[in-house]
Structure formats: structure tokens, C-alpha cells
Amino acid sequence: MSNNMPLSSLAKRLGLKLSLNDPRWGEDKDGNRQAQEGKKPGDGPPDLDQLWRDFNQRLNGLFGNKNRNGNGGGNGGSGGGGELKGAGVTVGAVAAIAVLVWLASGAFIVQEGQKGIVTTFGRYSHETAAGFNWRWPYPFQANETVNVSQVRSVEVGYRGNIRNKQARESLMLTDDENIIDIQFAVQYRLKDPVAWLYNNRDAEDTVRQVAETAIREIVGRSKMDFVLYEGREKVAYDTQQLMQQILDRYASGALVTNVTMQGVQPPEQVQAAFDDAVKAGQDRERQKNEGQAYANDIVPKARGAAFRLLQEAEAYRSMVTENASGNADRFKSVLAEYQKAPGVTRDRMYLDTMQQIFSSTSKVMVDSKAGSNLLYLPLDKLIAQVAATEAQRANVTAPPPAAVLLPPEPTYADPHRDGRARESSRDRETR
């Protein structure tokens, strides 16, 4: 039988009827109603003293404390003392059980990765580690469990899905006075559960507001193109650092682990115009790159050509200078020889000059004495043809075909030229 059984259940097992509608209320052991103060049976309330005595007797019978006299009315004094003693034992047992149950209610279990926070009369008392713990039961102490290993997250600019935008949070102004739409998520965990519970009224909302404040400050100091393209990682990192500084200043007990950019774009109302501007910028960059590539191709070639021309000019200058110097030296040497033997030196110079001229020009035979039409013979061609014929005869055993000579073209003598030729001939003869 349980010691903390309710009174109604105990009375039912003892056979007692506690209902006010019970017709046996107020009857004695023989079944006769008591006549109190001249009232008729059934007119007064039940006899509570008799009910209490019956309850104690049955309870003592269950616990082995029955009256040893066997005569309920023989010794009224001893019977009353036994009943009081039995009632005291019962109340003490029930009180002891109630105290044990009350003390047991102070036990609690903290899971791994969690911290237990114990308060005494609502004020922070101490922390408990993972495992089985005990505190003083209500109303003295209370406990609360906080998960410090869980990675929590808050969303700024959207809720649940990136398409579910929150324009009030996501729209912000850049340094170049452009509006930009940013959605990002913040991951954090707890480093101080006591500060997390008691330093801020709504800690999660505090983290969201701090994230929104930090991102607005970072974006407000940056250009729009920087935030949209090459500066996303830099903006996320700076936002994380600034958030941690603000949260530490608030003593929130949170540690920011990561800031993830979910979407960075211009507002939807100007998206088309912004795309056109981006395409124009891309075309500009492409044309600039093409021009730079052409310049990188043509400029080295021009520089190489210019350097080659400079080298050639330098070589030509050196050649002309050296030739002039050589000619001057040769002229000086010829002058010295000429002064020694003028006639011989003059004839030698004339022969060398004529040899140099005739070696690089076609040979013409002119009949200056006859007065008929002059015919010239291409001696150089005849000589070359004769040499080719002899070579062919040497290589081929069969006789080669006869060479066909073209008739010479008639020329008319120039009297001035003829006169100059005769004068030059007379000059040579006189020399």
C-alpha cells in the first residue's frame, strides 16, 4: 500500500463513506441514529468525532495497532490514547514521504554539450556540468538548461527562403549613394550561457539587430561595384568582426562563427537598367583589352623596326665614314705617287677606272672612223651565250643545236656624242 495514497482512496479501502448524501452519517455502531439536542434522526450533520475515531481504528488495524482489550467500551481512556498514537504515526509517515518526494524533485540531468544554470530565489547561483545534478527544490532554487554546443543562425533580409525577402532589412545605401539589396545569414554559438540568459531580454533578436547594424555600416563605407563583385568576402569578414565587437560590448555571451552572403544585387525595380550598364561596362573592358592586345602586338614590332633602322643607319654611317677615310688615305697615297711620276700614275688611274666601269656595264663596239650607220654588238650577251654553249657541249655528247643570234638593232650616231668621243680619243693620244 502506497504511503502517499489520497485520503478519499484510503477511506474507500477502509470502507468509510464520506459522502454527505450517505444515510448512515451520524449512526452509531448499532445502526441507530444519534439524537442530539432533541432533533429527529437525519436532521443534523454527521458526527465528525465518531467518523474520525472509525477512521483511526481501521487505519490502526491495517498497521497492526489494534486495540488489545477486545472491548471497545471497557477502557475508554486507553482506547483514546491508542487512537491518538496511531494517528501520530500515520501523519509522521505521510510527512516523511512528502519530504522525500519534495527533495527528489530537486534532481535534474544535464545532457552532453549543455550547461545547467541554477538560480536561488530567482538570482543566479552557479553552473552545473553535464550529468546528474541536484538543487534545492522549489521554491528555493530552480534550474535551466542551455545548449552551448549548438550552432545557431539568424537570417537578415529574408526568412526561410531567399525568395521570401524582407525589404526593410535588405535594402541599404552604399558610399556612392546607390541602393543595394543584400541577404545574408549569421552563424553563432554561445560562449557564456549566463550572459546569454540574463544580460539581454531577447538575445536572438539582439543578434539580428546587431547583424543589420554592422552590415549597414560596412556597406555604407563601400562602393556599389566593390560590394557586388570583388568585395563580397571582404564585406562578410568585416561584418563578422564588427558584430563580435558590438556583441562583446553588450555582454551577450554569443560568439559569431561565420557570416554567409546569400544574395547581393541591385533592387528589382532597376535590375534591367543595371544589367544594361553592366553589359556596357563589360563591352568597354573588352574593347579596352582588345586595344591593349593590339598595342602589345604592334608596339614591340615598331620598336624592333626602329631599333633595326637605327642599327642599319649606324652601320651605314660607319661604312661611309670608313670608306671616306679609306678613300682619303688612298688619295693621299696616290697623290704622293702622282707627284713622283705624274704620267704613269695618270695612265694607271685611267685604266683602273675604265676596268671598273666596263666590268659592270654592257660592252658596245662603235666604229668611229666609218661614216655609215653604226651597229652595236652585245658582246656581254655573246660571251655569256658562248660560255653556256661550251658548258652544254662538255656535259652532253650529242652536238648542241646552233645558237640563234638576234640581229643587232640599228642605232643612229649622235654627232655630239661622236665629237666628245673623238675629243676624248685625241686627249688620250696626246697623253
Structure explained in plain terms:
The chain is of the alpha+beta class. The protein has 5 domains: 7-67 and 79-104, no CATH class; 107-147, no CATH class; 152-266, Tetrahydropterin Synthase, Chain A (2-Layer Sandwich); 274-361; 362-418, no CATH class. Helices cover 52% and strands 16% of the residues. It contains 12 helices and 13 strands. It has helices at residues 7-13, 48-62, 76-104, 167-170, 193-198, 203-220, 224-228, 232-250, 271-340, 342-358, 379-395, 415-430; strands at 107-110, 114-120, 123-128, 131-134, 141-147, 152-156, 158-159, 161-165, 171-173, 179-190, 254-265, 374-375, 410-411. A hairpin with a 5-residue loop joins strand 9 and strand 10 (179-190). The longest helix has 70 residues, at 271-340. The relative contact order is 0.04. The model is unreliable at 1-8, 13-21, 25-42, 65-78 and 400-426 (pLDDT under 50).
